[in-house]
Amino acid sequence: MLIEQYHPQHWGHSTHGFWQNFGRTLQNLGRRMERLSQLAEQRQQLLEMDDHMLKDIGISRAEARQIAKGR
Hints:
The chain is mainly α. The protein is 85% helix and 0% strand.
C-alpha cells in the first residue's frame, strides 16, 4: 500500500543518511576553513621574512609578495 511507504518508521532510515552526509559536509567545511586559515598565516609569515631568510629558501621579495597574494 502506498501509505505504508511513508510511515514514520521509514523516515528514520532516509533521514539518518541525510544527517550523516550533512555531518561529513560540515567536517569537510571545517577542515577547509582551517586549511585556508593556515595558508593565510603562512603567507603572512612569508611577508615578514627578511631578505636573507627569503634568499635561504630561494625566493625573491617580489616572489614572496606574489605568493602572499595567492598567485
